[in-house]
Amino acid sequence: MHYVNHKIKKIHEIMLEQEMEVTGLSEAEIYAHMDKKFTNNGKMP
Protein backbone atom coordinates (compact mmCIF):
# COMPACT_ATOMS: atom_id res chain seq x y z
CA MET A 1 0.00 0.00 0.00
CA HIS A 2 2.79 2.38 0.91
CA TYR A 3 4.42 1.67 -2.44
CA VAL A 4 1.26 2.56 -4.35
CA ASN A 5 0.87 5.81 -2.42
CA HIS A 6 4.49 6.65 -3.17
CA LYS A 7 3.94 6.01 -6.89
CA ILE A 8 0.84 8.20 -6.93
CA LYS A 9 2.74 10.94 -5.10
CA LYS A 10 5.52 10.73 -7.70
CA ILE A 11 3.05 10.97 -10.58
CA HIS A 12 1.38 13.91 -8.84
CA GLU A 13 4.74 15.68 -8.50
CA ILE A 14 5.48 15.18 -12.20
CA MET A 15 2.03 16.47 -13.15
CA LEU A 16 2.55 19.47 -10.89
CA GLU A 17 5.89 20.26 -12.51
CA GLN A 18 4.35 20.05 -15.99
CA GLU A 19 1.45 22.23 -14.86
CA MET A 20 3.90 24.82 -13.54
CA GLU A 21 5.77 24.84 -16.84
CA VAL A 22 2.62 25.06 -18.95
CA THR A 23 0.72 27.65 -16.92
CA GLY A 24 3.64 29.58 -15.47
CA LEU A 25 1.90 29.55 -12.08
CA SER A 26 3.58 28.85 -8.78
CA GLU A 27 2.97 25.62 -6.87
CA ALA A 28 0.79 27.43 -4.32
CA GLU A 29 -1.37 29.01 -7.03
CA ILE A 30 -1.93 25.65 -8.71
CA TYR A 31 -2.90 24.03 -5.41
CA ALA A 32 -5.32 26.87 -4.67
CA HIS A 33 -6.86 26.45 -8.13
CA MET A 34 -7.14 22.67 -7.71
CA ASP A 35 -8.79 23.06 -4.29
CA LYS A 36 -11.34 25.45 -5.78
CA LYS A 37 -12.02 23.13 -8.72
CA PHE A 38 -12.50 20.06 -6.53
CA THR A 39 -14.82 21.76 -4.05
CA ASN A 40 -16.86 23.40 -6.83
CA ASN A 41 -17.40 20.10 -8.63
CA GLY A 42 -18.02 18.26 -5.36
CA LYS A 43 -15.65 15.50 -6.46
CA MET A 44 -13.61 15.60 -3.26
CA PRO A 45 -14.73 16.59 0.24
What's the helix count? 2
- Beta-strand content estimate: under 5%
Secondary-structure-based class equals: mainly alpha
C-alpha termini separation? 22 Å
Q: What is the rounded Rg?
A: 12 Å
Protein name: L-serine deaminase alpha subunit
Organism: Staphylococcus gallinarum
How would you describe this protein?
The chain has 45 residues and is mostly helical. The protein has one domain (2-39). Helix content is 82%, strand content 0%. The chain is flat.
Write the layout of secondary structure elements.
Blueprint: H1 2-23, H2 27-41
Key features?
single chain, 45 residues, mainly alpha, 2 helices, flat
Short structural summary:
With 45 residues, this protein is an all-alpha fold.
